[in-house]
Amino acid sequence: MFITPEKIAKNLLKIKAVFLKPDDPFTWASGIKSPIYCDNRLTLSDVEVRSDVEAGLAEIVDTYYPEAEMLMGTSTAGIAHAAITATILDMPMGYVRSGNKDHGRQNRIEGRLDAGTKVVVIEDLISTGGSVIEVVDALREAGAEVLGIASIFTYGLKKGTDRLEDANVKNVSLSNADALIKVAAEEGYIKDSDINKLKAFFSNPSDAKWMEM
Q1: Which of 7, 113, 132, 212 counts the most CB atoms within 10 A of its CB?
Q2: What pTM, to 2 d.p., does this model score?
C-alpha cells in the first residue's frame, strides 16, 4: 500500500523537519522571505519516520522506475536515503559530490557506474531544481541513463518544475506543498487564514505580497 503524501507531511511536521511561520517568515539565501523551512535530514533521526520515508522512496522506484539498476544520492542529504532505499531494493548505489575531489582520483561520482546504467537520483528536497539538475548532468556526462528523481518533498515551485521539464527530468516526490498545507491546517499548525498566504507564496515566492494577505 502506498504511503500517502499526507502521511509524509504529517511526519515532517511532527518531527519539526518542516516549520511553517507565515507571520514570522524565514529569509532564504536569495533574500526571499519564506513562510516555510524544511530540513529533511531530521527524518534520519526518527526511526518510525525514517521507515516510512525509505519505504515510500522504494515504492516510488518500484512503481515509476521499474527499469532502475542503480540509485544515486545527492550530496549530502540524499546519500543516506539512497543507501537505505538501495538496501530495501537490493540494488547498488553511489552518490554524486557537489564538485570534484581535489585529491586522489578527483572523483565527482562515487561508486562504480558503468556507461548505460539506468539510474534513479535520490533527493531530499526539490525547490528551484538547480542542484539536482547538476547531479543529473554529471551522471549523464558519465554515460548513465537517468530515469528520473525520487524525492522526499517538493515545494512545487514553477521555477523548479520548469527547470526539470527543460532538462527532461522526471521527478516523483513523496509529499508536496498542497498535502503539507492541508495537514498543517487540519492538525492546527497553521490558522485557516494562513492557507491563502501559503498558497500565494508557493505560487510565486518572489512576490512578497503574500505577507500582506
Answers
A1: 132
A2: 0.93
